[in-house]
Design brief:
436 residues, Alpha-Beta Plaits, 43% helix, 7-stranded mixed β-sheet, Arc Repressor Mutant, subunit A
């Protein structure tokens, strides 16, 4: 693995920029993890590209506005932004005309980590990138705790609808159903699974299909436009969901109710999110509104559910059998650990495992803005959204953020007030919903 050594000015500025926003790319202490961290920056950014990326704000910006910030000609900057977009480290958002296109520096996750491995062939050296990603993300827990260590994480579980009793299906909300999420999406794309592709280059690929993860809506537009996946019709996307369920894969979607941008079909052996639960005992995904429940009388003790559980939330325990010298084995579910995926119910051949509503339902952000605001608030980075290098974001955007903040519990509003220190924002937060 090559090394940058001491980061030069461009990479140091980029590393500092990547400490901000809802998902940062923290610099690890472990030597091997730190080497992987440096390697990722070196692979994805030339020094000139790092200088551009380090000046990009958290919100989308036009090429002309960024050129003014950097003191560059627009004609010189645009090709660099396009090259970054082709590599997946910058996302482009088309406007009405070419000059109206906005550019956004992608976060590490969900963002340029995934995009770096979503093509079979391109300019990014896949094996080198896979090893750098593995060294960084598995070398110590700094990145795992950044992504999965707060209340508002990037992904949520969708229950397998086939594991929910027919009588309960009418109570399942549309945004809780994978089929409804896919059916309602305006655009669909399928891409190579980042995790399985990385595992392939690390020499421990599994036999699950690589081209089964879906991107939706605006995310699909970008993926198709930049060649990170292929467009599919709604019917094919729905067929892929059925295939994933039959293979015992876990549906993990964008952690929002409205217009999610992806549904991944994840395996326990390769998925970074499921691995974080097992390795670091972190709540890496928001559970679905369901949890597994075992029927001791119907359970045969075969252990298929325990083997199928992707996070080890099911164990087999002995149960006393009257008038028998031996105990029977029955399944036992750790309800706090269970993510409500429904894989165990699909594995059971005796209908002894079922999915039931949780007593306390998980809190899912309504949209991406709410998720981003919540994440930044929890990580002490709320000011990053409001102010960029001393410049206000504008009244409309501030109003949207304040609208999200005023809907939060009083303790969160107080925390936001402490982080922002703005008279206007504090006034708005104080006038938020009462506790009564």
């Amino acid at each position: 693995m090559g090394h940058i050594g001491h980061l030069n000015e461009e990479y140091r500025a980029l590393a500092d920029r990547l400490q901000h926003g809802p998902v940062a790319m923290p610099e690890p202490d472990d030597e091997a993890a730190r080497a992987g961290w440096r390697e990722i920056l070196e692979i994805l950014f030339t020094p000139e590209e790092a200088a551009v990326a380090s000046r990009m704000p958290l919100l989308p910006i036009t090429a002309s506005a960024l050129a003014g910030r950097m003191g560059m000609a627009v004609g010189e900057l645009e090709p660099r932004l396009e090259a970054l977009a082709d590599k997946g480290v910058v996302m482009d958002i088309p406007g009405r005309g070419r000059r109206d296109t906005s550019y956004l520096l992608a976060p590490p996750v969900v963002g340029f980590f995934e995009f770096s491995m979503m093509r079979a062939q391109d300019s990014i050296p896949k094996e080198r990138m896979a090893r750098a990603l593995d060294a960084y993300t598995a070398g110590d827990d700094s990145f795992a705790r950044e992504v999965f260590g707060s209340r508002t994480v990037v992904g949520r579980t969708l229950v397998h609808e086939s594991g929910v009793a027919a009588a309960d299906l009418p109570e399942v909300l549309d945004w809780e159903r994978a089929s409804e999420v896919v059916g309602a999406a305006a655009h669909h794309a399928v891409s190579i699974c980042y995790c399985r592709h990385k595992a392939q280059h690390l020499g421990h690929a599994c036999d699950r299909p690589a081209d089964i993860c879906l991107t939706l809506n605006g995310g699909a537009d970008y993926v198709i436009r930049r060649g990170f996946g292929r467009a599919v019709e709604r019917t094919e996307a729905l067929d892929l969901l059925v295939q994933a369920r039959e293979l015992g894969l876990v549906h993990i979607a964008d952690n929002v109710q409205e217009r999610p941008t992806y549904i991944c079909s994840c395996c326990a052996c390769c998925c970074a999110q499921l691995s974080a639960i097992r390795r670091y005992d972190l709540p890496a995904v928001v559970p679905s509104g369901f949890q597994a429940e075992s029927d001791d009388k119907a359970c045969s003790g075969c252990g298929r559910c325990a083997k199928a559980c992707p996070i080890g939330a099911i164990v087999m325990r002995p149960q006393y059998v009257e008038a028998s010298p031996r105990s029977a084995l029955v399944s036992s579910v750790d309800a706090e650990r269970c993510i409500g995926c429904g894989v165990c119910a699909g594995a059971c051949r005796r209908d002894a495992m079922r999915m039931v509503r949780r007593a306390e339902q998980p809190k899912i952000p309504v949209n991406t803005l709410e998720r981003v605001v919540r994440s930044c608030l929890e990580k002490g980075r709320l000011a990053d959204l409001i102010v960029d290098e001393g410049s206000s974001r504008g009244n409309r955007f501030i109003g949207q953020v304040v609208g999200v903040l005023t809907s939060l519990p009083a303790a969160d509003r107080l925390l936001a007030s402490e982080q922002l220190g703005s008279r206007f924002v504090n006034y708005a937060l104080q006038r938020g919903p009462s506790l009564g």
